[in-house]
Amino acid sequence: MTAELNFEDLKPRVNAIQEVFQQKWERFRYFVLDHSDPKFIEHLKAEWRSGDSLLDMAVEAKDELERLRIELIGKKSELAALKKDVGRIRKEQRGIAGQAVNNLDIFIGNPLRDAEDQLQRLINKLRTESERIDVTLPGRRPRRGHLHPITMLRERIEDIFVGLGYAIEDGREIETDFYNFDALNIPENHPARASQDTFYTTDGFALRSQTSTVQIHAMQRRGAPVRMIAPGRVFRRDTPDPTHNPMFFQVEGLCVDRGISMAHLKGTVAEFLRRMFGPETVTRFRPSYFPFTEPSAEFDFSCFKCGGVGCRICKNSGWIELGGSGMVHPNVLRAAGVDPDVYSGFAFGLGIDRMCNLMYGLDDIRLLFENDVRFLEQFD
Ligand code: FA5
Fold first, then answer.
1. Rounded distance, CA 325 to CA 343, Å?
2. FRET pair for 53, CA 20 to 30 Å: which of 111, 164, 165, 283?
3. Best probe residue, ligand 1, of 195, 300, 354 (max atoms within 8 Å of C-beta)
4. Which residues line ligand 1 (CB under 6 A)?
5. d(CA 239, CA 228)
């Protein structure tokens, strides 16, 4: 049986606990004030200087206070041991000893809990403030994209030709030799194949080197008469430079009917360019050669910048070269199943990328496909 204790035996232990508390409490004593009291904040800033923000300081102070509470009144604290020992005090002194220990518990526990409570309130307030959304602030607009300059130009060209009564044809980017060459009057070993050498696949197909292939598809599908334009991507084994890309865009035009002549070709191209660049635009045709047209001509238009006087854009010539054209060769009509004794037609083709280059004053055609948003954004 354990020996009975006197109250006197416990007193030094009570005092010792009280002393430890008073010494350590010094660091927290202002936290029993209301958390918005300036003294509370000043004290926190002075004692927990290392925190990056007031919130950090409050969180650190509260963690430290929690550790102190566990040390002083937790289950393994000296006070808890003291409480157990009250049971061993002589019966007649047990009441008074119990009261003394309880008072100590209240003396220490109450300020600790009050301080923890106020620190927690401050933490909550600061967290709410930092996470608050100001609904009156103007919103951030999501970045809106826009069409690529080549697409914008293609759509303008389409609009003009639709207005002239043309249909829009969608061609194929992968073609057989028949559509890319043979049907266009470019037999095997013809020198025109070399200048338009393209990318071949292993099974007899090739990426089309010009949109003229769509002339054949359109006539096969629609028969004659036909009036269509075919914008699209074409491919050539050209080394990239400021005016060449191995992939670029063309627009093909085809008009086949009874009695179509060179005059219709000139009238149509001239009207297109007037609608594109303004009513003053003058068009010029120069004799040329394409295997699929006879006669053939390349067409230029008066510079939209200087009006024909000469400037940097037209290289001081006053003229800008745009594309090729001519009367559809009878062999091409025949290859597409149209009778050249009944029908005649004209065709033309132009490159959109170079046109884009000219219109926007770009120095290098390759910029259009670098996909640099800072560059593309300028065309909105
Ligand atoms: C042709 O491709 C003919 N099919 C045009 C044609 C159609 C003639 C119908 C007669 C009747 P050419 O090879 O010249 O023609 O190319 C036409 C245009 O494509 C050129 O004027 C140029 O603007 C553009 N072009 C040609 N090669 C490139 C390239 N590597 N990069 C960018 N644009 C190019």
1. 18
2. 111
3. 354
4. 210, 212, 236, 238, 244-245, 248, 250, 252, 290, 293, 323-326, 347-351, 353-354, 365
5. 31
Distance CA 311, CA 318 (A): 7
Distance 331 CA to ligand 1 centre (A): 21
Query: Is the pLDDT reported for residue 1 higher than 80?
Result: no
Distance 293 CA to ligand 1 centre (A): 14
* Ligand 1 closest atom vs CA 209: 2
Asked whether the beta carbons of 203 and 243 are under 8 A apart, the reply is no
Q: Which CATH number fits domain 149-379: 2.30.40.10, 3.40.50.300, 1.20.20.10, 3.30.930.10?
A: 3.30.930.10
The structure's pTM equals 0.67
pLDDT in tens, 350-363: 999 989 988 888 88
Tell me which of 180, 212, 289, 368 to substitute to probe ligand 1's pocket, judged by most ligand atoms within 8 Å of the beta carbon. Answer: 212
Atom nearest to 352 CA in ligand 1: 23
Mutating to test ligand 1, I would choose from 350, 356, 362 the residue with most ligand atoms within 8 A of its C-beta, which is: 350
- The structural domains of the chain, with segments of one domain joined by +, span 7-131, 149-379
Query: CB 56: neighbour CB atoms within 10 A?
Result: 13
Going along the chain, which residue ranges are E strands?
A: 167-168, 174-176, 205-207, 226-235, 247-257, 283-290, 293-302, 319-328, 344-351
Indicate the burial class of 153 (C-beta count within 10 angstroms; 0-12, 13-18, 19 or more): buried
Cα separation, 150 vs 156, in Å, equals 10
As a whole number of angstroms, the distance between CA 137 and CA 135 comes to 6
Closest CA to 36 of 145, 147, 132, 129: 129
Q: Which residues contact 69 (CB under 8 A, 6 or more apart)?
A: 109, 112, 113, 116
Quote the strand ranges of 307-376, DSSP E. 319-328, 344-351
